[in-house]
Amino acid sequence: MPSERLAVEWVRSWWEQADAALTKLMPAFLPTHGFAPGHNTVTLATDDSHRATDALVDLTPIPSDLTTLYWVISEACLPDVDSGYFIHSAATAGRHVREYGPARIEGESTALVFASDGAGRLFAIGDSGQVWKSTTASWSDDFEVAAAGLQHFLEQLGRRIANQL
Fold first, then answer.
1. N vs C: which end of the chain shows fewer Cβ within 10 Å?
2. Could you tell me which residues come within 8 angstroms of residue 31 by beta carbon, excluding any fewer than 6 positions away?
């Protein structure tokens, strides 16, 4: 379980580093990989995404770290980082909760899917603060621990972006 709560300032700094790395990565992508990159971006939150975050909080209990993340970042679309990584918007997370319910993870009373990878595997954050990854591209299969907390998950993602350079 993470010892400290995710801080807005930390998420903002993470976004700045990710944005700078993506700015360097995109011009070098075609010569390095032999094909043009997709649209890779981490989008800052807006008034609309803040309203979607408030609606998600009203819909279901969500870990405070996820609320902090959504207060700074609306979503991330990183199709060219490894096999792809996507942090879903709060509006998308809300649609998923209404359609599928929370992820069923043993030991977590609530686990909310907030991200996925290019292989369709899902990432959920539990009320413990741990981030879980589905073992297959399914809402109903097993999940395994992917990160001790959301900050650790973002640090891992930041390293993946930087390693693309």
1. N
2. none
Q: Looking up tokens 């008034």, which residue turns up?
A: 47
Please list the alpha-helical segments (H only) found in 73-149. 90-100
Contacts of 42 (CB under 8 A, 6+ apart): 15, 18, 19, 22, 73, 75, 76, 78, 87
Of all residues in the chain, what percent are helix, strand and coil, respectively (each to 5)? Answer: 45, 20, 35
Q: In this structure, what DSSP letter does residue 80 have?
A: T
In contact, 134 and 116? CB cutoff 8 Å: no
Assess contact for 156 and 82: CB atoms under 8 A: no
Locus of tokens 């591209």: 137
Distance of CA 62 to the CA centre of its chain: 14
Q: Are 134 and 111 in contact (CB under 8 A)?
A: no
Q: Tens of pLDDT along 102-134?
A: 999 999 999 999 999 999 999 999 999 999 999
Q: Which residue has the tokens 């903002």?
A: 12
Two tokens at 144? 């395994």
